[in-house]
Specification:
Blueprint: H1 2-13, H2 19-32, E1 37-45, E2 49-57, H3 60-63, H4 68-80
Antiparallel strand pairs: 1-2
Helix pairs in contact: 2-4
């Protein structure tokens, strides 16, 4: 019975994506194509004291030098079968 539920959820995830949701997902991918991303966390707690972490990420699109607007357009087209409903909002 669990297998059937998992298969149903997996099939639902493969269904059509709304144009708005596709635009949101693809904008994130296009922003990542602009170059490396950096993150960091610094904090203190009463159990272990201070802590810090850092991360650097880069996507294959950024490594290949793909135009972020092309990444956005092709991503939306792949997810919906239609051109984007709005221009990419890249910050």
């Amino acid at each position: 019975m669990r297998l059937v539920a998992v298969m149903f959820i997996a099939l639902a995830a493969c269904g059509p994506v709304s144009p708005e949701r596709a635009a949101d997902r693809c904008e994130e991918r296009a922003r990542d194509a602009q170059g490396p991303t950096f993150g960091g966390t610094v904090g203190v707690n009463s159990n272990s004291g201070g802590f810090a972490s850092a991360s650097i990420g880069i996507t294959s699109d950024a490594l290949r030098g793909r135009d972020p607007l092309e990444v956005y357009d092709s991503c939306v087209l792949r997810l919906t079968g239609q051109p984007p409903i709005r221009p990419a909002r890249l910050r």
